[in-house]
Amino acid sequence: MEKRTPRPGGDDTKSHYERPRGGGHLTSVFIIAASEVVRAGLETLVGSDERFTVTGSAADCEVLAEAPPPDVVLLELGDASGINFAELRNLEEAGTDGDAPALVVLMADLREERITDALDFGVRAALPRNSTSGEILAAIEGVAAGLIVIHRDALDALRDVNASTAVTAVTPSPSSEESLREAERLTPREVEVLGMLTEGLGNKEIASRLMISEHTVKFHVSSIFAKLGASSRTEAVTQGIRRGLIML
User: Fold this and answer.
1) What single DSSP character describes residue 177?
2) Where in the chain are the domains?
3) Is 98 helix (H, G, I), strand (E, B) or coil?
4) CATH match for 172-242 among 1.10.10.10, 2.60.40.3080, 1.10.600.10, 2.170.150.70
5) What is the rounded CA–CA span in Å between residue 208 and residue 39?
6) Burial class (CB in 10 A: 0-12, 13-18, 19+), 109
7) Stated pTM of the model
8) Cβ distance 17 to 3 under 8 Å?
């Protein structure tokens, strides 16, 4: 017998029947898109994949505050979505006991500052709105596994800005020069740790892989934050990508 999973909400909110499937944990996905047509298309795409179960959908973020957090939130940011990045902070805090949903965002605007804003607000995957079905499903699987996923087009936007800045910045400000010097002084071990932060690894996992203590890992992470001017792991990864310290 099919089991119905109730979800709160009004006319623009749907709850779904979960298909009985055998074997393994299914990644639960909640879909948010202002357009009913887009929502329906994403529901069909994700729901047809045996790795995932769609637990609901809505036109905005508010419904998630009243519902058990899914593993992943797939959010389509269209031109008229009415959703801003400040609302993403609410999604990040929707989880309990630190179990916040991983955010996958489909973006119409791939300017560098928009991508950076998204990552700063806790987004784990940034993709263009016209991404292929395979790319969207791969991103969901990646963030569910703890990875940070950046589409090649989004990465190109970050790199293009860096290249343009390098060509046009004839006289860098003292603060910019100091920032670049600090980034260049990352030790080989710190670069290695930064790469593992990109993989979404925690301190314990990094310590195990490098065969060092967690205390030493914390020291390296703190040093990376200071040198890159970052206040979070996501921001450190973003800065590492922008400055060419991380090879994806």
Assistant:
1) H
2) 3-156, 172-242
3) coil
4) 1.10.10.10
5) 41
6) middle
7) 0.57
8) yes
The candidate with the shortest Cα–Cα distance to 93, out of 64, 119, 131, is 64
Q: What is the chain's Cα-based Rg?
A: 19
Rounded distance between C-alpha atoms, residue 218 and residue 120, angstroms: 21
Nearest to 237 by CA among 151, 154, 145, 116: 116
pLDDT < 50 regions, the chain: 1-11, 16-22, 95-97, 161-183
**Exposure of 90 in the CB half-sphere (CA atoms within 13 A):** 13
> What 3-state DSSP class applies to 55?
strand
Q: What is the pLDDT of residues 53-88, one digit of tens each?
A: 999 998 887 777 777 789 999 998 866 555 556 566
Task: Quote the distance between the C-alpha of residue 128 and its chain's center.
Answer: 13
